[in-house]
């Protein structure tokens, strides 16, 4: 049995005694655990006495052939946010969006924005076909990924990685909360703009900066796409997983 870790540390922190013991026993019985970053791997090893040789860091991949850069800016610039993981921080995004004079399109579920006072420039959408989501990425002036602080008790520590890689593959300028796991995928000021989690002022300032400088924004997008092609393709991810399987068998 190979375990793919999106949320094991968060689950261990939240489980009561018996449920935690069952989860711990299952992980100890597995042939290998695959984490999506070295930060995530170290976090798991801090919580559980596992053989480090059986816990692997394998960066996630994305379908970079389906998701390719397209020069199709929308008639009116907009900022796109995508994701329904419970660690998404749309409350902070709402405060920031009220201070950024462009429309925001947020692809999420009603539960993620329940009780949040959304400004008039924020539109919520859900249930889109993947091709339509790709079109929204293509037209966005910027993609924003607001995520709670690492210690937040809900969601997953790997939450946001798929949306991050989708935006990177589409060569979009990205403003992302600076969770440690993301720093293994993007570099601040080179392939994304990282801001402190749960800081609405910093988030608004970063978005304003990206929107005000299209040339610099395009440079972020190109670097993000290059990072995907170099380290985060789906064939590369499959090959690294195959290596784990070979060692575990």
Key phrases:
249 residues; 9 strands; alpha/beta; globular; 43% helix; Rossmann fold; single chain; 10 helices
Can I get a quick summary?
The protein has 249 residues and is α/β, with parallel strands linked by helices. It has helices at residues 8-14, 17-29, 38-47, 90-97, 110-113, 130-139, 161-169, 200-212, 214-231, 234-248, and strands spanning 2-5, 32-35, 55-57, 79-82, 104-107, 122-125, 142-145, 174-177, 193-195. Strands 6-5-4-7-8-9 form a six-stranded parallel β-sheet, with helices on both faces.
Describe the structure.
The chain is an alpha/beta fold. The chain has 2 domains: 2-59 and 233-248, no CATH class; 79-231, 3-Layer(aba) Sandwich (Rossmann fold), CATH 3.40.50.2000. Helices cover 43% and strands 14% of the residues. The protein has helices at residues 8-14, 17-29, 38-47, 90-97, 110-113, 130-139, 161-169, 200-212, 214-231, 234-248; strands at 2-5, 32-35, 55-57, 79-82, 104-107, 122-125, 142-145, 174-177, 193-195. The protein has a 6-stranded parallel sheet with strand order 6-5-4-7-8-9, sandwiched between helices. Strands 1-2-3 form a 3-stranded parallel sheet. α1 (8-14) runs parallel beside α3 (38-47), α4 crosses α8 and α7 packs across α9 (214-231). It starts with a strand and ends with a helix. The model has no long low-confidence stretch (mean pLDDT 95).
